[in-house]
TrEMBL record, chain A:
PROSITE patterns: GAS_VESICLE_A_1, GAS_VESICLE_A_2
Subunit structure and binding partners: The gas vesicle shell is 2 nm thick and consists of a single layer of this protein. It forms helical ribs nearly perpendicular to the long axis of the vesicle.
Similarity comment: Belongs to the gas vesicle GvpA family.
Localization per Swiss-Prot or TrEMBL: Gas vesicle shell
Keyword tags: Gas vesicle
Protein name per UniProt: Gas vesicle protein A
Pfam family, one: Gas_vesicle
UniProt cross-references to InterPro entries, sorted A to Z: Gas-vesicle_GvpA-like, Gas_vesicle_GvpA, GvpA, GvpA-like_CS
UniProt region (Disordered), positions on chain: 72-139
Highest taxon of the lineage: Bacteria
Organism of this sequence: Streptomyces iconiensis
Gene that produces this protein: gvpA
Basic and acidic residues bias: start-end ranges: 114-126
Functional note: Gas vesicles are hollow, gas filled proteinaceous nanostructures found in some microorganisms. During planktonic growth they allow positioning of the organism at a favorable depth for light or nutrient acquisition. GvpA forms the protein shell.
Automatic annotation (TrEMBL), chain B:
Locations listed in the record: Gas vesicle
Full protein name: GvpL/GvpF family gas vesicle protein
PANTHER family, per the entry: PROTEIN GVPL 2
Family from the record: Belongs to the gas vesicle GvpF/GvpL family.
Transmembrane among keywords: no
Pfam families assigned: GvpL_GvpF
Record's keyword annotation contains Chaperone: no
Organism: Streptomyces iconiensis
Keywords in alphabetical order: Gas vesicle
């Protein structure tokens, strides 16, 4: 299970990726001070998720259901393969790339880096995720 | 020389690690500017500061250190003042406001929780809840997977059920944990979680909050929960400001 350390004292960063958005998007803003790199921060706020309503998603869900062992409990592994769509992921990334420039790309890279780290952590205990999470990974 | 501001807190200044460094390459030494009842945690602002991962981490690390023993108002990343005098000027001019916020947040920390669905478990869940889905799935399976149209139709029904479940589960996360917190704030919405909330939790009841998260995890096996904290109260520091705490009273909406 992927759990950022909850009891870490002194404001442990937990999973960096999970708190990056708060560092960037929340916190006190004082008008007298200049904010750096506002462009990158604004672009991050664009909703980059791919809608769940797509033929790819439908077929993937149908496939997953087909393999689902309905008699088993929800936690029993059925050996469902990782269907995280490499095919769709690469396509979506290609599309977004052109829109991200300069500081925004830097931020995007920063997120990606942190996300990759988070993925590596998860490899210890792989779990399948639904479309909503996968959408995020298509960024 | 411009000044990078990390956060604002009430004197006395706690002891910070002597070698504490902040943003920049090389990382700039962190220092403190005192003014009246307040102090600001600052460093030199490097030229061409960009929101790189390393810089974001530095900002968070400095606030973690400064906030380890007392309440600190965290600045948003990238707040740069013309010089030290401007910082102390702001502390003097707006002391009442900062002190009010510090009082309101005294002894509180932020916990951020993000939720996604564990695919197999949520599929089981929607199948269990909706017999027609189960029937359609079994019919397809009996037909060796079903035709393209049949698979598409099943998939669409399942996707719709999972989406509806996202909204239900987001509401569950919020309703379960809100009573253990002083305040709730919806996180930035762009990252594709079914739920992304920050909770303002009293330091003394952090263990109860963590236990409630653990209970929720057991009760709702389709949810994958990621808990981060304790954090400086990023989402609660400026309730009137744009972008901070605006979601606190908004209805839960799963995207």
């Amino acid at each position: 299970m992927t759990v950022a350390p909850a009891q870490q004292q002194g404001g442990g960063t937990g999973n960096l990726y999970d708190v990056l958005e708060l560092v960037l998007d929340r916190g006190l803003v004082i008008d007298v001070f200049v904010r750096v790199s506002l462009v990158g921060i604004e672009i991050l706020k664009i909703d980059i998720r791919v809608v769940v309503a797509s033929v790819d998603t439908y077929l993937r869900f149908a496939e997953a259901c087909n393999r689902l062992d309905l008699e088993a409990g929800p936690k029993k592994s059925t050996g469902l393969p990782e269907l995280v769509g490499d095919m769709s992921e690469s396509g979506a990334r290609g599309k977004t790339k052109g829109a991200l420039t300069g500081a925004a790309q830097t931020v995007s890279d920063a997120y990606q880096q942190a996300r990759d780290e988070s993925k590596r952590e998860e490899e210890a205990a792989p779990r399948k995720r639904t479309a909503s999470r996968r959408k995020e990974e298509r960024e | 020389m411009s000044t990078y501001v990390y956060g604002i807190a009430r004197v006395p200044v706690p002891s910070l690690p002597e070698d504490l460094t902040g943003v920049g390459d090389p990382p700039r030494p962190v220092r403190v500017l005192e003014q009246g009842d307040l102090f600001a945690v600052v460093s030199e602002a490097p030229e061409n500061l960009t929101p790189k991962r390393r810089e974001l981490l530095a900002h968070q690390r400095v606030l973690s250190e400064a906030g380890a023993t007392k309440t600190v108002l965290p600045m948003r990343f990238g707040s740069v003042s013309d010089d030290d005098e401007t910082v102390t000027g702001v502390l003097a001019d707006r002391a009442a406001h900062f002190l009010e916020r510090l009082d309101a947040l005294e002894g509180m920390v932020e916990y951020n929780i993000k939720a996604t669905h564990e695919e197999e478990a949520v599929l089981h869940r929607v199948m269990a809840d909706q017999p027609e889905l189960r029937a359609a799935s079994e019919a397809n399976r009996a037909a060796g997977g079903g035709s393209y149209e049949e698979r598409l139709r099943l998939g669409e029904m399942v996707a719709s059920a999972v989406q509806a479940r996202e909204a239900v589960d987001a509401d569950t996360v919020r309703r379960t944990l809100a009573p253990l917190a002083h305040d709730v704030s919806e996180g930035p919405e762009s990252m594709g979680w079914l739920a992304n909330f920050s909770f303002l939790v009293d330091h003394d009841t952090v263990a109860d909050f963590a236990a409630a998260v653990e209970d929720l995890r057991m009760a709702e096996p389709q949810l994958e929960l990621r808990l981060s904290g304790p954090l400086p109260p990023y989402s609660f520091v400026d309730k009137t400001g744009a972008g901070a705490g605006v979601g606190a009273d908004a209805g839960v909406r799963a995207e």
